[in-house]
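Risk mitigation, structural track. In case the binding assays with coenzyme A fail to produce interpretable data, a predicted complex structure has been prepared as a fallback.
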Amino acid sequence: MSNGPAQTPAASAHTAVIKPTDLRGILKYVPRFQGQIFVLALDGSIVADENLSNLLVDVAVLRSLGIKVILVHGIGRQLQELSEARNIPISNIDGSGVTDAATLDLALRASSRVSNVILEGLTQNALKCAITNAVRALPTGILKGVDQLHTGKVERIDKDFIGHLLEKDIIPIIQPIGYGIEGHSLRINSDLLAAEVAEALHASKIIYLTPHAGLEIDGQVRRDISGDHLRLVLRDHLDAIAEPGRSKAANAMRALEKGVPRVHIVDGRIFDGLINEIFSNEGVGTLIYGNDYQQIRQAAKRDVRMIYNLTRNAVKREELLYRTQQAIEKNIDQFYVFEIDENIVACVTLYFYPDRPDVAEIGSLYVMPYNQNRGIGKKMVQYACMKAKDRGAKTIVALSTQSYSFFISQLGFEESTVEILPEARLKSYQESGRNPKVMIKHA
Ligand SMILES: CC(C)(COP(=O)(O)OP(=O)(O)OC[C@H]1O[C@@H](n2cnc3c(N)ncnc32)[C@H](O)[C@@H]1OP(=O)(O)O)[C@@H](O)C(=O)NCCC(=O)NCCS
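Fallback model:
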């Protein structure tokens, strides 16, 4: 890390706290993220926060690891301040309502100020950047009988232009302003803009940096939530989402539906928060995940034979417990399968103990040899853990005779003892005579 381009005082303070173990942790992700595009969407208040200089050092770290970064920024806080300082009322603060001429004028001033602060910070870190006119916009027009005046919607993102900059190692800075066909400016909501830019550039992540701990649902900050789950909350229980997160939740959903695999909502005021969110299994903000798990589905009766055949070899090697086809069929609801081109190549089970609804057990994990070492095993277990958590599990148990180190080294499980098993499960454990190791993880 110390060889990276960031050598400001803030950078050296930052690198000084990275331990070799952290570095190993980060390097693990490098091959996966190299060449990928991350859209970092900064709220105006994060640009005004004292942690901005650290965030921009983190941007330098991402760049040095081969990750292409696009910065999209908001201006809400600065617009509010300008409005108060000049005593000019604004018609809407976040670009989602009516923008009158006076508000547009202040928004343009706020925007150039914010872009300039970012430009200065990136310059300090020896990073090249460019403010662009890559967002082509159309007036939003009349909604429910009200003319939205200078508020715009994205007509087109000039992805060749942005792609060109990225190829040349230049960080594009995208303001929440779009340009109409005659060159006039239109105000655009920055959360929406980040989603549109990420979709157009096929980014692998959007990271919303906000002044909040993450996405709060029912009074609790979620660490992760599936797109399927969030879609239902947005549709049926919008009130459950704490207000500062609603726009981000809706735009995250929009991005997921357009193919952006992951959206993070992170507190941009926390030192090292961004780096921790990207380079740790646990993260610090909220991860909203989409089609990463698209190939995983719940098994159906028609899959019984395939699951039986799939696991037969592992049973012979005592890696898995023997189950008859009838036993698989009887418990088919417990199975999840991973499909490639309609072939099942991996399976896992998730089982809830009847007398302990807070504990779930993961079992029968198997990946076909040809497909091993492609991340499928990890994905299956992570998916099963998320499902377990969605259904209320607090503790996840895994039993394994030969792959316990996989669960421990790759998935953060810890070795435990048989005593933690509920009575009925302990009995079947002892009767099986296989003596697998018991591992647990908190959901
Ligand atoms: C164990 C198993 C599920 C792993 O699945 P996979 O899809 O190959 O694993 P992933 O691609 O997600 O992960 C690969 C990583 O796990 C490591 N790994 C694989 N098997 C491991 C094991 N038995 N112990 C420790 N680490 C293991 C790999 O070395 C690799 O590490 P790296 O990323 O640091 O290079 C798979 O090998 C398998 O089905 N094995 C036979 C059946 C079995 O033992 N099942 C477990 C019963 S509970």
